[in-house]
């Protein structure tokens, strides 16, 4: 467990009440302890495992509410199949109903499959869905908005105090999600829903809950914290949200981190080890069911209702990670397994169908230190598809893709690792796990360089005087590292990044990208290209938001994974070699470290192609990652 006990050492007054808030977030359709990409059990994920922790938490404290903070409908092949079937009760909704969820908030990924899929899935829910800033129509004020689901809800619990007297407690629950979802899923949502700033909406609906009789208010905030000052519409708004008067406890998420714990340590306003943000107890329970969040509130009576006198926040893991691997701490809950069994079987049958072959290993362990076979495969398919549509065209066709599964908060098992040989639909799901669609932009050479500068920002600036320096900046995600095939360039990590994690310029220097060429010829700033990418990028996600008024050359509805299927049917086999696009500029023996999956040790030979002079495997970290020491 991660968390702290309340500061009070004296016995609590007998007239106090105790309320326990039990919460999940960012389940991403990990209903079972199963890795659909590996077609194998996994002890690191699954609501079926979290269910055991939920039962334990409920047994310890009678007065408990169970909440979820969003991003539950998308994230595994099970979610893709459920979205396509659209018949009967959605498996996630069935599982949540079986576990007795009291209220569930919406996250941004609920909208990935479109509004029709979302509304059909939610239609089978026996519990309230809440979101006060996802709207069918904006009003003059937040309280005049027409919400997509319920804006807020009041739950009731009868709790006993120390004297055995039973008291009814009214618990207000509201939820917010990043308004950026309108950009990220613009093609499916434009003109159909509206969004309001999370902070603006919550500041109106928290007092509304109090006026309606809520004695405790719990905010489901589908966002993380940021050191940036408060701005309207900000994505990482946890600090100002937690500080809203009238909020008693917060469930956070979206960024797949953990709180309480070492994540966000040192961030102003965050007491990371205690699980407090702006003085309020907060839990952020990881990803994929890795943890259960538990907040305990001790309530003292006041003249009209109750007030929080003490609180505690903690995380409870479903497994322990270490050098020996993953050790489960709980067993599967049979009610969840039973609720999901038909959908699970249908998903496995679909994933196991053959679709082609590969003569190369498709792995993402070395995506940041060698040419990436996963990116190579995606780019080859995207460029092939785009040329078929656009030919004849005088402008060179390029393709941009990023590695999706590269460890990070999801853990050391979260990598693509496909051996040469027969490929199945399961393998394509591992190559491309998101329901994006193919898109294409017309860009100039100058815009290409900016695109690559944003990608190069995922690396730390390196100094020869620092032997223990990380290669990767933890403020960036793996999917920020777009590689554009058809070009060649160097990345000079002695220079500072030109762009920050928000994609905005943070420096005026020459940047890290050097010697940008195509077919050996320097790329002119005014040269024009067509670049294949995906709907998520076109929507402005990550670092690579297109410039205002960017010319979209292709805006169809062909799914990116379907492009891979068509390419394999045409080509039959994915072939090598994996052509290097980029390499690190020589830094005179400068050293850095990177943590990756253990499978990387079989693929280190290609690192020299990316300018890595030496790779030395070191220890397995406490989190289970393989540490590598690099010399550039």
UniProtKB/TrEMBL annotation:
<dbReference type="Pfam" id="PF00149">
    <property type="entry name" value="Metallophos"/>
</dbReference>
<feature type="domain" description="Calcineurin-like phosphoesterase">
    <location>
        <begin position="19"/>
        <end position="257"/>
    </location>
</feature>
<dbReference type="GO" id="GO:0030288">
    <property type="term" value="C:outer membrane-bounded periplasmic space"/>
</dbReference>
<keyword id="KW-0511">Multifunctional enzyme</keyword>
<dbReference type="InterPro" id="IPR029052">
    <property type="entry name" value="Metallo-depent_PP-like"/>
</dbReference>
<protein>
    <submittedName>
        <fullName>2',3'-cyclic-nucleotide 2'-phosphodiesterase / 3'-nucleotidase</fullName>
    </submittedName>
</protein>
<dbReference type="GO" id="GO:0008254">
    <property type="term" value="F:3'-nucleotidase activity"/>
</dbReference>
<dbReference type="InterPro" id="IPR008334">
    <property type="entry name" value="5'-Nucleotdase_C"/>
</dbReference>
<keyword id="KW-0378">Hydrolase</keyword>
<dbReference type="GO" id="GO:0008663">
    <property type="term" value="F:2',3'-cyclic-nucleotide 2'-phosphodiesterase activity"/>
</dbReference>
<keyword id="KW-0479">Metal-binding</keyword>
<dbReference type="GO" id="GO:0009166">
    <property type="term" value="P:nucleotide catabolic process"/>
</dbReference>
<dbReference type="InterPro" id="IPR004843">
    <property type="entry name" value="Calcineurin-like_PHP"/>
</dbReference>
<comment type="similarity">
    <text>Belongs to the 5'-nucleotidase family.</text>
</comment>
<dbReference type="GO" id="GO:0000166">
    <property type="term" value="F:nucleotide binding"/>
</dbReference>
<dbReference type="Pfam" id="PF02872">
    <property type="entry name" value="5_nucleotid_C"/>
</dbReference>
<dbReference type="InterPro" id="IPR036907">
    <property type="entry name" value="5'-Nucleotdase_C_sf"/>
</dbReference>
<dbReference type="InterPro" id="IPR041827">
    <property type="entry name" value="CpdB_N"/>
</dbReference>
<dbReference type="GO" id="GO:0046872">
    <property type="term" value="F:metal ion binding"/>
</dbReference>
<keyword id="KW-0732">Signal</keyword>
<dbReference type="InterPro" id="IPR006179">
    <property type="entry name" value="5_nucleotidase/apyrase"/>
</dbReference>
<dbReference type="InterPro" id="IPR006146">
    <property type="entry name" value="5'-Nucleotdase_CS"/>
</dbReference>
<keyword id="KW-0547">Nucleotide-binding</keyword>
<feature type="domain" description="5'-Nucleotidase C-terminal">
    <location>
        <begin position="415"/>
        <end position="541"/>
    </location>
</feature>
């Amino acid at each position: 467990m991660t968390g702290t006990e309340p500061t009070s050492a004296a016995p609590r007054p007998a007239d106090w009440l105790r309320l326990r808030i039990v919460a999940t977030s960012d389940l991403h359709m990990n209903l079972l302890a199963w890795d659909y990409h590996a077609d194998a059990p996994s002890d690191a994920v699954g609501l079926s495992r979290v269910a055991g922790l939920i039962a334990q938490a409920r047994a310890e404290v009678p007065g408990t509410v169970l909440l979820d903070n969003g991003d539950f409908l998308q994230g595994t092949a099970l979610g893709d199949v459920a979205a396509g079937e659209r018949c009967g009760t959605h498996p996630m909704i069935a599982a949540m109903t079986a576990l007795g969820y009291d209220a569930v908030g919406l996250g941004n990924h609920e909208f990935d499959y479109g509004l029709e899929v979302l509304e059909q899935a939610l239609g089978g829910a026996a519990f309230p869905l809440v979101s006060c800033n996802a709207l069918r129509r904006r009003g003059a004020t937040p309280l005049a908005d027409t919400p997509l689901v319920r804006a807020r809800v009041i739950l009731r619990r009868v709790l006993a105090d120390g004297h055995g007297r039973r008291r009814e407690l009214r618990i207000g629950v509201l939820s917010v999600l990043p308004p950026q979802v309108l950009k990220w899923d613009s093609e499916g949502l434009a003109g159909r829903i509206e969004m309001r700033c999370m902070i603006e909406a919550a500041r109106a609906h928290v007092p509304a809950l109090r006026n309606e009789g809520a004695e405790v208010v719990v905010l489901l905030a589908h966002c993380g914290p940021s050191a940036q000052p408060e701005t309207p519409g900000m994505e990482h708004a946890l600090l100002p949200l937690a500080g809203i008067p009238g909020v008693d406890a917060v469930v956070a998420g979206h960024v797949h981190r953990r709180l309480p714990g070492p994540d966000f340590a040192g961030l102003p306003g965050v007491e990371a080890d205690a699980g407090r943000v702006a003085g309020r107890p907060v839990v952020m329970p990881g990803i994929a069911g890795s943890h259960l969040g538990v907040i305990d509130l001790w309530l003292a009576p006041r003249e009209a209702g109750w007030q929080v006198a003490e609180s505690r926040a903690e995380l409870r893991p479903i497994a322990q990670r270490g050098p020996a691997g993953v050790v489960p701490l709980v067993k599967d809950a049979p009610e969840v397994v039973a609720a999901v069994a038909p959908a699970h079987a249908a998903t496995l049958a679909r994933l196991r169908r053959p679709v082609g072959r590969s003569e190369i290993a498709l792995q993402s362990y070395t995506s940041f230190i060698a040419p990436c076979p996963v990116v190579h495969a995606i780019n080859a398919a995207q460029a092939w598809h785009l040329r078929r549509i656009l030919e004849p065209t005088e402008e060179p066709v390029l393709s941009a893709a990023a590695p999706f599964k590269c460890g990070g908060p999801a853990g050391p098992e979260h990598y693509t690792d496909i051996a040469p040989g027969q490929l199945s639909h399961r393998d394509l799901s591992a190559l491309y796990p998101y329901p994006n669609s193919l898109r294409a932009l017309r860009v100039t050479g100058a815009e290409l360089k900016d695109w690559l500068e944003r990608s190069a920002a995922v690396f730390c600036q390196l100094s020869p005087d620092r032997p223990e320096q990380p290669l990767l900046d933890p403020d960036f995600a793996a999917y920020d590292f777009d590689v554009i095939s058809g070009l060649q360039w160097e990345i000079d990590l002695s220079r500072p990044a030109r762009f920050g994690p928000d994609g905005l310029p943070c420096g005026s220097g020459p940047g890290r990208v050097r010697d940008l060429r195509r077919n050996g010829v320097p790329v002119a700033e005014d040269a024009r290209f067509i670049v294949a990418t995906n709907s998520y990028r076109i929507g402005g996600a990550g670092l690579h938001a297109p410039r205002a008024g960017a010319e979209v050359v292709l805006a169809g509805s062909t799914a990116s994974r379907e492009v891979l299927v068509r390419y394999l049917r045409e080509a039959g086999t994915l072939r090598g070699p994996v052509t290097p696009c980029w390499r690190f500029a020589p830094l005179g023996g400068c050293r850095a470290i990177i943590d990756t999956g253990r499978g990387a040790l079989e693929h280190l030979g290609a690192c020299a192609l990316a300018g890595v002079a030496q790779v030395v495997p070191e220890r397995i970290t406490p989190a289970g990652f393989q540490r590598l020491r690099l010399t550039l």
